[in-house]
Structures are given as C-alpha cells and as structure tokens.
Design a protein that fits this description.
alpha/beta; five-stranded parallel sheet; Sig_transdc_resp-reg_receiver; Response regulator; CheY-like_superfamily; ST_Response_Regulator; phosphoprotein
Amino acid sequence: MSRILIVEDTRLMRDSLVDVLTELGHQAITAENGAEGVNMIASGETFDLIITDIIMPEMDGIEAILEIQTMCPQTPIIAISGGSARLEKTAGLDTAKRLGAVAVLEKPFEIDALLAAIAVATKA
C-alpha cells in the first residue's frame, strides 16, 4: 500500500489516523508540525501521500504545503482542519485547495470521507 506522512499537532488525531491507515495496510509516518514534516522531506524521505493539518505551531499547514510542493510537487496532499478561534475551518481549507491540495476535510470527519479522499489523492 502507500507510505503516508501525517502532519498533525494533536496527538489523539495523529494516533487515530495512524491506527486507521495501518489497519488498512498503509505505512503511516508522523510529524507533530509542519516544520518537522518539511524537515523529514528535506532529509530525503519520500511519501506517496501527505495528510496535513492546517493550524499547527512552528509551521502551519499552508506554509508546509508551499514548502512540500517545492521539494516534491508530484506528491498529493490532503489538508484537514478543525479551524480555530481566529480562523474558521473553511478559510484554511479553501487556501489549501487553491494551493493544490487534492482533497480537503473538515474535522471531525468520517473515516469513509478520509478513505474517499485517499482514493482520490492516490489516483491524482
């Protein structure tokens, strides 16, 4: 199956995604923020798919998407977000979509929605 990088600052969400993806046979690798994810890619790690949160400390998902697309423009990206007190969910997701994310999901999302997004992303 696919080697998937999960860039997510919330441990529960990160662990949940790893559990679901691993159960489906994917190899799930995690980063706690955009900077960590970008550094992994910059160090030569490759992925078939990247799932990134939008609102994170150190480097947010929008900055991470821009950096990742520079280093590996062919790798599909799925953006996820639950919004924040200062930013509604759709604002960051709309920006991610305009920047090239192949799918976007509002948290909380159903596993079926994630699986559909992964199917779209891995065919992109």
